[in-house]
Specification:
The protein is α/β, with parallel strands linked by helices. It has two domains: 275 residues, Aldehyde Dehydrogenase, Chain A, domain 1 (3-Layer(aba) Sandwich); 184 residues, Aldehyde Dehydrogenase, Chain A, domain 2 (3-Layer(aba) Sandwich), CATH 3.40.309.10. 40% of the residues lie in helices and 20% in strands. Helix 15 links the parallel strand 17 and strand 18. Helix 1 crosses helix 4, helix 4 packs across helix 5 and helix 5 runs parallel beside helix 6. The radius of gyration is 23 Å and the shape is globular. The protein binds succinic acid.
Length: 505
């Protein structure tokens, strides 16, 4: 089944925009109960291409009343969807996956236009995001219970897993496709109905995903997308946690917002899964293969222009290989091409919005003011547009600088020298976050020791790119809790019910 004419028209419009940059997109409604709906107020907000700063679309600025209707629709839909068999859900989800694959080029263009990632990277994200639906369509048939060994002959004890119910999925702008499919795939496979609130910056990809889900046969109300502008987001976010029909939420985004949502969920004791900010250490030990370490470092750091929760935040390099590593890293970084996301060969697009530009600029200015050396980059690229920033390499950094302790979320690599494994671990673990960590070593005992000692949820050992639908994604400490992807992803959307059968006659 092909895309609806609406979607095809929208994608063509984006392609035209790459040439003429002078039109409005046609995905201009939210998607509730399989209908395109406006906000009752009639208000909309613009979606802006971060590369050109042109408006590429406008979507409804929904308030709590609008969003309540989506939650109600999900509640009605759950009554039937929650009763389907895993095999039935698997069939529908497989069709969704096939439509996603069929339309992968259009999805990648749509995503590049609203989030600014280079087209080749957007294509990679689409493959990654699609794989979540493929994976969870397979997992839907394997949501099993357990038979417990009863301690007495008069009882049989069984555990079954049931869907939570209606779930709210609040997703970020940095992966507009994969962060939705990683949550919605698990939720749908478990038998939940969902209300998705995509980030204000990137609602168009979410709407396209929802349309394709409907085309695949996901029933009305099972997958809804609500849109709202930044000012209304706290109230809508609160409702998505507190509404009596919502059983749980899953959020990916900043730690600050995650804490607010966690508090909101407390009043109704709602289930919550949080995938929050990271601050990944990337350690290079002296025995490591430095060429591989540099390749891994560049892939890890500059993915999505550094705007990735699992991006390396600080490179910790053992003193005897420090200079060599830095020289190699500088050389690779110099070869990175910054530019129009639709142009071939571009590695880094723009930052998502002006507040990100301000944040990255301030982080570099703070480091320089406190004595850091800018080995490469260190400024915006006005010739390309307001949101482009050079790949930047900072040396001589110390704990007084923001770049040393805070998540950078931009194309700024920071290198720190260390002497011993113990020192590296103590720097790596001296943060409140604990999402991912990486290290390069050729010593097997060290690999096991360090992997266990890093206070993170995921570790890349001689590897800079670790994400996959099959693996468990998630953090510890203030990076949140709950796991996405993998069979564990289903756990966030089911609860265990204990059945005790009395056998006395
Ligand atoms: C993220 O930045 O939160 C997601 C990155 C990934 O899934 O690899």
């Amino acid at each position: 089944m092909g895309l609806s004419r609406l979607f095809v028209r929208q994608v063509r419009t984006i392609q035209r925009q790459a040439r003429s940059m002078s039109y409005q997109l046609k995905f201009d409604k939210a998607f509730v109960n399989q209908k395109w709906v406006a906000a009752a107020s009639g208000k909309t907000f613009d979606v802006v291409n971060p590369s050109t700063e042109q408006v590429v679309g406008a979507v409804p600025d929904m308030d709590e009343n609008d969003v309540s209707k989506a939650i109600d629709a999900a509640g009605e839909a759950f009554a039937a969807w929650g009763q389907t068999t895993g095999k039935e859900r698997a069939g529908v989800m497989r069709k969704w996956y096939e439509l996603l694959v069929k339309n992968q080029d259009e999805l990648a263009k749509l995503m590049s236009a609203e989030c600014g990632k280079p087209l080749s990277e957007a294509q990679g994200e689409v493959v990654y995001g699609n794989s979540m639906i493929e994976w969870f369509s397979e997992e839907a048939r394997r949501i099993h219970g357990e038979v417990i060994s009863s301690p007495v002959k008069t009882k049989e004890m069984v555990l079954i897993r049931q869907p939570l119910g209606v779930v709210s999925l609040i997703t970020p702008w940095n992966f507009p496709h994969a962060m939705i499919t990683r949550k919605a795939g698990a939720a749908l496979a478990a038998g939940c109905a969902c209300v998705i609130k995509p980030a204000e910056d990137t609602p168009l990809t979410a709407l396209a995903l929802a349309k394709l889900a409907a085309d695949a046969g996901v029933p009305p109300g099972v997958l809804n997308v609500v849109t709202c502008a930044r000012p209304g987001a706290p109230a809508v976010g609160r409702l998505l946690c507190e509404h009596p029909r919502v059983a749980g939420i899953s959020f990916t985004g900043s730690t600050a917002v995650g804490k607010v949502l966690y508090r909101n969920c407390a009043s109704g004791v709602k289930r919550i899964a949080l995938e929050l900010g990271g601050n990944a250490p990337f350690i290079v030990f002296s025995g490591a293969d430095l060429d591989k370490a540099v390749d891994g470092a560049v892939a890890c750091k500059f993915r999505n222009c550094g705007q990735t929760c699992v991006s390396a935040n600080k490179f910790l390099v053992q003193e005897d290989v420090f200079d060599q590593f830095v020289d190699k890293l500088q050389k690779k970084m110099k070869a990175l091409v910054v530019g129009d996301p639709f142009a071939p060969g571009v590695n880094l697009g723009p930052l998502i919005n002006n507040s990100q530009v301000t944040k990255v600029t301030q982080i570099v200015e703070d480091a320089v003011a406190k004595g850091a050396e800018v080995r490469l980059g260190g400024k915006q690229v006005p010739s390309l547009g307001k949101r482009f920033y050079e790949p930047t390499l900072l040396l001589n950094v110390d704990p007084s600088m923001v770049c040393y302790s805070e998540e950078i979320f931009g194309p700024v690599a920071v290198c720190v020298r260390f002497k011993t494994e113990q020192e590296a671990l103590s720097i790596a673990n001296s943060t409140k976050s604990g999402l991912a960590g990486y290290f390069y070593s050729s010593d097997i005992s060290q690999a096991w020791r360090v992997a266990k000692a890093l206070e993170v949820g995921m570790v890349g050992i001689n590897e800079g790119i670790i994400s996959a639908a099959e693996a468990a994604f998630g953090g510890v400490k203030e990076s949140g809790f709950g796991r996405e992807g993998c069979h564990h992803g289903i756990d966030e959307f089911t609860y265990v019910k204990y059945l005790c059968f009395g056998l006395s006659q």
